[in-house]
Amino acid sequence: MTDSQIIREIKDGNTEVFAELMNRYQRKLLSFIYHMLKNSQLELLAEDLCAETFYKAYRSLHTFRESDASFSTWLYTIARNTVLSELRKQRSIQVSLDEEQGIIPEAPKEAAPEYALLRHEKVELVREAISRLPDKQRSALILREYDQLDYQEIAQVLGQTVSSVKSLLFRARASVKIQLEPYIKEPGLEGMN
């Protein structure tokens, strides 16, 4: 069944089929939320916020209109808003995220870790660089690179135009590249992809 057919069934009273929508989107949505929270070190809240997103979607399903957006776009929008709301709540409790951001220390040049360790470190460096991006740039990059959404879908999730999304992605990629330049020039990391 398509998302549209499932939604029609739910609106007609067969609420049990909502579980099928959850099965379809839970992994990707959890990954998206996790990456959104990475910057603030609140990754442990990802599962709770994913569940909250599905709860909000279920309660608001009667307001969903396919003519405005696809179900997945609508769901990602709810997830993004839920995460941003939680981050605002946490900022009022904790030190501002801007003050928490630091510089990634360079690995000692004399250390020669094995390939697997280098690969893991490179992945972590990329994740940390992404986590330092402003919210909209980080969201756009995660939706494009991790969740494989097209520009139009990203524009709908972020409430932006397609050209704004392209600009956000350009700036995000440029920022990540600048952050990673010192590490790419290190011997041992140069030839890794």
Automatic annotation (TrEMBL):
Q: Please report the stretch or stretches of sequence annotated as the RNA polymerase sigma factor 70 region 4 type domain.
A: 125-174
Family assignment? Answer: Belongs to the sigma-70 factor family. ECF subfamily.
Tell me the organism: Paenibacillus alvei (Bacillus alvei)
Its recorded name reads Sigma-70 family RNA polymerase sigma factor
Q: Which residues form the RNA polymerase sigma-70 region domain?
A: 21-91
User: One biological process GO term for this chain?
Assistant: DNA-templated transcription initiation
Do you know which Pfam families this protein is assigned to?
Sigma70_r2, Sigma70_r4_2
Provide the GO MF annotations for this entry.
DNA binding; sigma factor activity
Keyword Lipoprotein among record annotations? no
Which top-rank group of organisms is this from? Bacteria
Sorted alphabetically, the keyword list is: DNA-binding, Sigma factor, Transcription, Transcription regulation
What InterPro entries is this protein classified in?
RNA_pol_sigma-70-like, RNA_pol_sigma-70_dom, RNA_pol_sigma70_r2, RNA_pol_sigma70_r4_t2, RNA_pol_sigma_r2, RNA_pol_sigma_r3/r4-like, WH-like_DNA-bd_sf
